[in-house]
Design goal:
This protein is an all-alpha fold and 253 residues long. The protein contains 10 helices and no strands. Helix 1 packs across helix 4, helix 5 packs parallel to helix 10 and helix 8 runs antiparallel to helix 10.
Length: 253
């Protein structure tokens, strides 16, 4: 059964392109809100003066401060240069997730293609940062602590076998990361918005029922639950990206 979606009102957008249209709408919205936030930030003393009320500037001040805090905890102060990337990943996933809370909209994140694209971006990014930090020695993170030495022929073969096994295992571990990130996000988004749509169908619209005060909390509760899940999944995706970057640039191997 094909359900109506508001994006299908856009010329050329068929059912198979709904997630693409939603992703583009979200991207344009993020660009717009970032421009608004930049204007609201101001310059000189206005830029460093905290917002005194709830506003776009106040929201982004709290949000960026939170991202800085998590980055400091996971990577350290040297990880602050990655904050723009982490903030972008979170906002892109979060706003795409929230699109599913709008009746008649489908979140782009319940489509595996969107999620794999973001997962591959994180995958390429942390490997690029790892190579930049360690140069050629970055490969040691795939081979483990044991390296074969020609000066010790008795241990060369066992060490080489162990190194080869570690390389295969680590390579597989890294290769599945974009897909594990993608499947986790897709599964939770599909489940969350399916539950929300079921309960919205079961509960009549409150304003057409004389006892609407009694049934109003039902959809509200599930909307709040949906908001929590949308935020949590964006946070988990971003948190794992932070951990991957931290591991890639770490010198403790």
């Amino acid at each position: 059964m094909v359900h109506f979606n508001w994006t299908q009102l856009i010329p050329g957008v068929g059912h198979e392109y709904i997630h693409v249209a939603t992703a583009l709408i979200t991207g344009m919205f993020l660009i717009l809100i970032s421009l608004v936030a930049r204007v609201a930030l101001g310059s000189n003393e206005a830029a460093i003066t905290p917002a005194s009320r709830l506003s776009v500037k106040g929201f982004f001040e709290v949000f960026v401060e939170a991202i800085y805090g998590f980055t400091d905890q996971i990577i350290g102060h040297e990880g602050r240069k990655f904050v723009p990337m982490f903030a972008t990943i979170f906002l892109y996933i979060w706003f795409n997730n929230l699109m599913g809370l709008i009746p008649g909209m489908t979140p782009a994140t319940d489509n595996i293609n969107t999620n794999i694209a973001v997962g591959l971006f994180a995958f390429v990014a942390y490997h690029a940062y790892g190579l930049k930090e360690h140069k050629g020695s970055y490969v040691k993170q795939f081979t483990g602590p044991i390296l074969p030495s020609f000066s010790k022929l008795a241990t060369f073969i066992p060490a080489f076998i162990m190194m080869s096994l570690m390389f295969v295992i680590e390579s597989i571990s890294h290769a599945v990361r974009p897909f594990s990130l993608s499947l986790r996000l897709q599964g939770n988004m599909i489940g969350d918005h399916t539950v929300l749509s079921i309960f919205l169908d079961l509960v009549p619209f409150p304003f057409v029922n004389e006892n609407f005060l009694a049934i109003l909390p039902v959809p509200v509760v599930f909307y709040l639950l949906g908001l929590f899940v949308c935020t949590l999944q964006a946070f988990i995706f971003t948190l794992l990206s932070m951990i991957y970057v931290s591991m890639a640039i770490s010198h403790d191997h």
